[in-house]
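Hey, can you fold this one?
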Amino acid sequence: MAEHHVPENLPSKIQHYIGGELVDSVSGNTFDVLDPVSNQTYVTAAAGQAEDVDRAVAAARRAFTEGPWPGLLPRARARVLNKIADAVEAQDKRLAELETFDTGLPITQALGQAQRAAENFRFFADLVVAQADDTYRVPGRQVNYVHRKPIGVAGLITPWNTPFMLESWKLAPALASGCTVVLKPAEFTPLSASLWAGIFRDAGLPDGVFNLVNGFGEEAGDALVKHPGVPLISFTGETTTGQLIYRNCAASLKGMSMELGGKSPAVVFADADLEAAIDSTLFGVFSLNGERCTAGSRILVERAIYDEFCQRYADRARNIVVGDPHDPATEVGALVHPEHYEKVMGYVELGKSEGRLLAGGGRPSGLDTGNYVAPTVFADVPPTARIFQEEIFGPVVAITPFDSDAEALKLANDVRYGLAAYIWTSDLTRGHTFAQSVEAGMVWLNSHNVRDLRTPFGGVKASGLGHEGGYRSLDFYTDQQAIHVSLGPVHTARFGSVQKGQS
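Sure. Predicted structure:
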């Protein structure tokens, strides 16, 4: 049985943060939060309802209309963002410890996510200072320019996988743009989000600019989406929830940015660097416990190398270290929650009738409690199989052979999702041609998911709506107002200048 590391100085309760104050729900309602190793309640959190969201939106609105934040010079906002990044970096080990305890992510990977969160704030601090907007001239006649201004109160709804990093991904550009925010973190993992209040306060962010309401998606999240005082919703999560949010945003025509699920293909051609492809495709689906939207969870392998690939891949998967998330040697930790564990194990059992089990297939030996799933590999998976078509969001992979480039492309595109794709080949022409034909918002050639923060992040089909990342994030949180200035006489048809009766 895995040792159970419990961090020191855990909070006695988790509250909302509204208008610069830590507060309970108006109703007094709370919910229990489990850790994924013991599956025992370790803290209770305030369960936000519509009235709590109302208070948070009112505070954010006051900070937007009466406070200094939206009108600060970009450099002044950037200074605050850099102080936030400094604070995150200074406590990255504590952040990682709490994140690991709350999510079950391996500690080494949680530490990387904490450092990435700091980098998100630094990146958008730089970007907002360097932001340039367009000017269009008609010589002697007109100057037309774009005036960019923050939209207002942004509603941010974040998932339970890598929660702190994904919160930073939305908070940084929203704040950099001059918006105020209401964050609704995932109910499974509220612990690290509770640290933002102190970080922001110490960095000098004015009260009311950042507000946090904990709670369930059906209650707090739903109220935030439907709130008339929130013109923007940025959501990362599961596709079905995204569809519901889309419907609920329609009534007030809110701006939406949605990064949803994925079932991303990794396509390995016979001319690939096989060693690198195996390393990368293992990491691509088993890192972060497989709980990642961009996981390369379908591996398509050219027939000539299929048997060798399957054997070598399965041998490595069986050797992955599963165990205590706090142990630096752990490569796969515990899944986030018993409900999610049951879902993933359901797919593992289903896969035994849909493919050929090469590795895993159940709970690892010696780990009798906690949400542990052995890294599971299925081969010979047909495209009609549910484990080929549906997002599992766990350490489970389906491997499928192909005989031609055309068949590989058909298999790659034969799902409802289109978030990422990974292509392994030494043929430059094939690599580019295939990349441009695959139905995915992002493609990596001869690599797993290595992000450049300047590039657009988002998916097609059921994987999302809109893009964030780089200037596209600033575009989402701002209105780009076109202002037209006449420099000379403007020819205008003179309606009504001829008196009636005259010809």
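The CA atoms of residues 106 and 325 lie 4 Å apart. Let me know if you want another pass with a different chain boundary.
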